[in-house]
Design a protein that fits this description.
The protein is an alpha/beta fold and about 375 residues long. The protein has two domains: about 220 residues, Aspartate Aminotransferase, domain 2 (3-Layer(aba) Sandwich); about 120 residues, Aspartate Aminotransferase, domain 1 (Alpha-Beta Complex), CATH 3.90.1150. The protein has eleven helices and 13 strands. α2 runs parallel beside α8, α3 packs across α4 and α3 packs across α7. The chain starts with 12 loop residues before the first helix and ends with a helix.
Length: about 375
């Protein structure tokens, strides 16, 4: 029986050669290769500045701090997201205020945000979940009306666009993840992008003990040790060269699933514009998620459940009404989404799902 993991990294000889070059140089911490990686990411995105960091969670925290967000401040974040978004807010002493999401697109609902914004609100973090975004023009107007800074959580959105511009480059700052499951990976790691020189310089200080450069002995502010490494940058450069093809593969993968399953009772695909969106994972809503999970597991097909609502997590337990997040969280499932999958592979997976559907209908 062929086994299909829900996701897997794609590494090859190009990555090996890049890493060996760094190993042979004898310099493996953050240096020239990291600067090259930052330059190439910024060039791809059309951003003025890019700052590599050790992970995207810290990247979000640093970006918020660079904008002056801190204790006593509130930050609006979607209730439906990976917990890293809220953790980043809490790490800097601010308070995450959870906002319900749109029931179709799974991204932050600005009408609900209007109900939850207060005089203490200082920023909003739209999460571009699975490459989908809210209407960024409306979000920018909302932020301007309430005096909020915008930090885009684009961890799942590298390559996705809104109105022709890359997500992550539209707010004050944007943050991408290069974790193992992402469209390109450096093992761990992330990158902050911005068009502002002032924000860039603040991020550079904050990621390296508050100093403006590695050679400086003067530490102007408090800061972290959140540096990248040239080993990671070497991986990233090799992966970045594969990104255009991987973007197209991810789009084809989603379309294959949708073509095979769109009319199947009990399975719903959220709307997606594949001309602008690059799906991170293939996401569906299921009438009986637990049964489908069990069926696919018995066939060697890996899946992953959607995130729990953030307000229900023990570390952020809070009251309030978040009906859309709760409904999505109960029904959502990510299907096998590796860019390694072929059309034949997707056919095998979808046959198994259709067999489950026939069983489900006949109960």
């Amino acid at each position: 029986m062929k086994v299909f993991p829900q996701i897997e990294p794609l590494l090859g000889s190009e990555e090996r050669e890049e890493v060996l070059t760094v190993l042979n140089s004898g310099f493996i911490t953050e240096g020239k290769k990291t600067r090259e990686f930052e330059t190439e990411v910024a060039r791809f995105l059309g951003a003025q500045y890019a700052i590599a960091v050790n992970n995207a969670t810290v990247g979000l925290a640093i970006a918020l701090m660079a904008l002056g967000i801190g204790p006593t401040d509130e930050v609006l974040v979607p209730d439906f997201t990976f917990i890293a978004t809220a953790n980043a807010v809490a790490l800097i002493g601010a308070t995450p205020v959870f906002v319900d999401v749109d029931p179709r697109t799974f991204v932050i609902d600005l009408e609900d945000a209007c109900r939850r914004v207060t005089k203490q609100s200082r920023a909003i973090v739209p999460v571009h979940l699975n490459g989908r975004s809210p209407d960024m023009g409306s979000l920018e107007s909302f932020a301007a009306e309430h005096g909020l800074r915008i930090v885009e959580d684009a961890a799942q959105a590298l390559g996705s666009r809104h109105a022709g511009r890359y997500l992550g480059t539209l707010g004050d700052a944007g943050v991408y993840s290069f974790g193992t499951t992402k469209i390109i990976t450096t093992g761990q790691g992330g990158i902050i992008v911005t068009q502002s020189r002032k924000i860039y310089e603040a991020c550079v200080r904050l990621k390296d003990h508050g100093r403006p450069s590695r050679s400086s002995e003067v530490h102007e502010t408090f800061g972290f040790n959140s540096k990248f490494t040239d080993l990671q940058a070497a991986l990233g450069l090799a992966q970045l060269r594969k990104l255009p093809n991987r973007i197209e593969q991810k789009r084809k993968l989603y379309q294959w699933y949708r073509d095979e399953l769109a009319s199947l009772p009990g399975i719903e695909f959220p709307p997606i514009d594949l001309s602008e969106t690059v799906p991170w994972f293939v996401d569906i809503l299921c009438a009986d998620r637990a049964a489908l999970e069990l069926h696919l597991k018995s066939a060697g097909i890996g899946t992953r459940r959607f995130y729990l609502p953030q307000h229900s997590q023990p570390c952020f337990m809070s009251s309030g009404s978040y009906p859309n997040t709760e409904s999505i969280s109960r029904a959502g499932l990510w299907l096998p989404s590796s860019a390694r999958l072929t059309g034949d592979d997707v056919g095998i997976i979808c046959t198994s799902i259709r067999n489950f559907g026939l069983e489900y209908i006949s109960r």
